Structure formats: structure tokens, C-alpha cells
From TrEMBL:
Pfam entry (one): HEAT_PBS
InterPro entries from the UniProt entry: ARM-like (IPR011989), ARM-type_fold (IPR016024), PBS_lyase_HEAT (IPR004155)
GO MF term set: lyase activity; oxidoreductase activity
Name used for this protein in its record: Phycocyanin alpha phycocyanobilin lyase CpcE related protein
UniProt key word Lyase: yes
Record-linked PANTHER family: DEOXYHYPUSINE HYDROXYLASE (PTHR12697:SF5), PBS LYASE HEAT-LIKE PROTEIN (PTHR12697)
Repeat listed as a keyword: no
Entry keywords, A to Z: Lyase
Source species: Methanothermobacter thermautotrophicus (strain ATCC 29096 / DSM 1053 / JCM 10044 / NBRC 100330 / Delta H) (Methanobacterium thermoautotrophicum)
């Protein structure tokens, strides 16, 4: 296996299209699959005819499931190459017995706008497979945004969270205001990631969504009110402040403690000093969650003039303007920053079998081995996930690390600098951590996340 993989890689690196086409006809079906994947990566026009031949399904292939991988790669490659002669073979591939081949054909057909492609894909919006349903909606949206939005709006009621998430992402991408009502009706989706994308789709509509959201604050379900409040905070409209203040403290305060906490959080995001009196009143709320969110909001409003917002599609947070933020994207490291003597980094690592607790134990062991002093670990919530804050000192410096897990990755945020500098930056670090959000991409999904 290693030998033929090395050979295919060598052909790919040398841009040897002819050699890969020959490998695509190998009697060894594993070689065929590797060659098809290599040609998909290469996306060279010279391989189009061979890939169209490889895409053709014949009855005898049902006994060799590995060949479905060849056909799926061929389908995807033809979309990347963009030769219109591939349309008819791709349309035939929609009838392939393998779902991945169907999906590859849909994705590629969305690169060739035509009524024929649109109608062929439209037949799959009610398919039993959730993967096919979500890919059909996304492909239709690529061909005809108007029709795609209609199917996406309907799909917000799908039984599969994956389909609902894709539907919300499609609506978010095109930002059609006519979809606002259906989005608001589904703010209380049972899945966290779906709710997040619905929320982002509403937020993308900006001020247009504020009045309908304010009307929705009277919804009898506390979960819906909480999402509405969060959307108002994300939009950041000061028109919402009077109503939100009334929900936080005094005679008209919301009966649900979680909603009150989200109200405090939203007021912090909006950043209007007019909310400070009510936030200070909320510091006396009987519930810790509300008091904590009020304290965080007061911190944010206090430093609001100094703040910038960072959002790269995966990570978002607020930070002081005097931190120099650099995107790195070199493997595990996502962000580098510094402020005078303070160094900051955001890292991640794939960790399917590792918990945040186990990873924090590893960090504690490393710090002990390096002889750091005053090592301490405490529980903390980051982006609604349970995590840990670890602090440790050298002779002149302090290290503060935040650790949490989301979507199969361990995220760890690292601050290091002179103890006094770190003490002075604590309020900004709190704002940074309290506003941090990681947007999870589903495995194998398309889209912008």
C-alpha cells in the first residue's frame, strides 16, 4: 500500500497527468481510487475525458464498493475542472447507487447553471438521506438563490439538525429579509449549532430585524426570549436598550434568571452607558449567573472605547486596540498578539479522545517540570463550554492559560508577561474570554461556516 501511495504522490508532485490517467485504469482498484483523488486535487482539463469514463457506473461495480470512491472523486473533479461537456455524465451520476457519488455530482452541477441541472437536483430535497437533503439545498441555492431560500426556509423544520444547520447557513449567506419571520419562529431550535446559525442569520439583517425582535420579547417561552435577547445584543442597536433595561431589574424584570443573565450580556455587547445603573442593580440579583453576566457587562462598558472586534469565520472576540493581533494559521496556532511586554496566543489541537480536564492535567505537569511557582487551576466557562484557567509564575513573569474543548478540538489561550502588566490587563482579558466564540464547521460540510 505504501509503495503505490508513494507512486501516486510522485505522479501528483510531478504534475504527470498521463501517468495518473493510466493509474485510473489500474487492475488494482485501490490504485484507481488514489489516482482519482489525485486528479481531483490537480483539476487538470486534460483529465476530463478519463474522469468522465471513470464516473460511469456499471452493474458489476456493485460488488466492489471501493469503486464508489473513484466515481465520487471523479464527480467532484469534473466540477473543479469546469468543462461543460461533463454536465450530462454528472446528471447520469445523480442516479448512482452510492450517496457520495450523488453528492459529488450535485456539488459539481452547481458549477454549471442550467434549468436541467436545477430540476434534476430539486428531486432530492426530500431524499431519505440527510446528507443528500442538505447538499441538494446548498447546491440549489448555488444555482438559483431564490429557489434555494424557499427550500432552506422549509428545511428549518427538517428532522435532521444537519439539514436545519445547512438551511440556516444558506439563509445567512444570502441575507434575504423575507426569511426573517421563519427565522424568528425557529430561534428555539433544540440544537445549539442550529440556533447559533439562525441567530447569525437574523443578526446579518441588522437594524431591519430590531423591531420584530423587540416584539418577540413577549414570547411565553423563556428559551425564545433568551435567543431574541442574544440577537439584539449581537446587532448592537441602542434602540433595544430601554426594553432590555426593563427586563433586567425592577418591577418589569424577566421572571427567568437565564433570560436576565442574557439581557445583562446583551447590554454589555451594546455598550450603552445608560444601562450601567440597571446593571449595578443586577449585581444584587439572587442568582449567580445574573450577577456574573452583569459584572462582565459593566467591565465591557467600562473599557468600550478601547475595544476592537475580531472575527475570521472561526473565532470571534473583542480585544483592546493596543493589542497587536496577527492571524497565523500555521498548523495549531490561530492567533498571535502582543501588547508591550504581554504575549498572547490562541492555539488548538485535534483531540477526539482527550478531554479539557485531561489536557489541563498535561499543562499542569509541564509547568511543574519547568519549575514554575504558585501553580493553580480553577474552573471557568468559555464560549458556554466548561473549561479551566491555569495560572503560574516564574521569578518575574506570570502565565495565564485558558483551556476548553469544542467540536473535537482543544482550544487553549495563553497569556504571558510581567506580573504587574498582567494585573493591569485582567479587565481586558476578562472581556476577551467573555466575548470569545468558536464557530464549529461540521465534518465534510461546505460553506463559510
Amino acid at each position: 500500500m505504501i509503495a503505490f501511495t508513494d507512486k501516486i504522490n510522485a505522479l501528483l508532485m510531478s504534475n504527470d497527468v498521463s501517468g495518473l490517467i493510466d493509474a485510473l485504469k489500474s487492475h488494482d482498484f485501490t490504485v484507481r481510487r488514489e489516482a482519482a483523488v489525485a486528479l481531483e486535487r490537480m483539476a487538470d482539463e486534460r483529465s476530463a475525458d478519463a474522469l468522465m469514463d471513470a464516473l460511469r457506473y456499471e452493474e458489476w461495480q456493485k460488488d466492489y464498493p471501493i469503486l464508489a470512491g473513484v466515481r465520487a472523486a471523479a464527480a467532484r473533479a469534473l466540477g473543479k475542472i469546469g468543462n461543460p461537456s461533463a454536465v450530462k455524465p454528472l446528471l447520469r451520476a445523480l442516479e448512482d447507487p452510492d450517496d457520495e457519488v450523488k453528492i459529488g455530482a450535485m456539488r459539481s452541477l452547481s458549477e454549471f447553471p442550467s434549468e436541467e441541472s436545477l430540476r434534476a437536483i430539486e428531486k432530492f430535497v426530500d431524499h431519505p438521506s440527510e446528507d443528500i437533503r442538505r447538499n441538494s439545498i446548498e447546491s440549489i441555492a448555488g444555482l438559483d438563490p431564490e429557489l434555494g431560500l424557499r427550500y432552506a426556509s422549509r428545511a428549518l423544520g427538517d428532522s435532521s439538525w444537519m439539514v436545519r444547520k445547512t438551511a440556516a447557513k444558506v439563509i445567512r449567506r444570502f441575507g434575504d429579509k423575507r426569511c426573517l419571520e421563519v427565522l424568528l419562529d425557529n430561534l428555539n431550535d433544540p440544537d445549539t449549532e442550529v440556533r447559533r446559525h439562525i441567530l447569525l442569520a437574523v443578526v446579518n439583517m441588522g437594524e431591519y430585524a430590531v423591531d420584530p425582535l423587540l416584539e418577540k420579547l413577549s414570547d411565553p417561552q423563556w428559551q425564545t426570549r433568551a435567543m431574541v435577547v442574544e440577537a439584539l445584543g449581537e446587532i448592537g442597536s441602542r434602540r433595544a436598550v430601554p426594553r432590555l433595561k426593563g427586563m433586567l431589574a425592577g418591577r418589569r424584570r424577566d421572571e427567568n434568571r437565564y433570560v436576565r443573565g442574557k439581557v445583562a450580556e446583551a447590554l454589555g455587547r451594546i455598550g450603552d452607558p445608560a444601562a450601567l445603573e440597571d446593571l449595578h442593580m443586577a449585581l444584587r440579583d439572587p442568582y449567580l449567573f445574573v450577577r456574573r453576566k452583569a459584572r462582565e457587562a459593566i467591565d465591557i462598558i467600562d473599557v468600550e472605547p478601547d475595544l476592537e472586534e475580531f472575527h475570521d469565520g472561526e473565532i470571534s472576540f473583542r480585544y483592546p486596540r493596543f493589542w497587536n493581533i496577527f492571524e497565523t494559521r500555521d498548523g495549531e496556532r490561530l492567533i498571535d498578539a502582543w501588547s508591550d511586554n504581554l504575549k498572547i496566543a490562541i492555539k488548538r489541537r485535534r483531540a477526539e479522545g482527550l478531554t479539557a480536564d485531561e489536557f489541563s492535567e498535561i499543562i499542569l505537569e509541564v509547568l511543574n517540570m519547568r519549575g514554575l511557582l504558585n501553580i493553580a487551576r480553577s474552573n471557568i466557562t468559555v464560549d458556554s463550554e466548561h473549561g479551566y484557567m491555569i495560572t503560574a509564575d516564574t521569578k518575574n513573569e506570570r502565565v495565564v492559560t485558558f483551556i476548553f474543548k469544542k467540536g473535537g478540538y482543544i482550544y487553549y489561550i495563553y497569556f504571558r508577561g510581567p506580573i504587574e502588566d498582567l494585573k493591569e490587563s485582567y479587565k481586558y482579558i476578562r472581556v476577551f474570554i467573555n466575548t470569545l466564540h468558536v464557530e464549529i464547521q461540521g465534518y465534510g460540510e461546505r460553506g463559510d461556516g
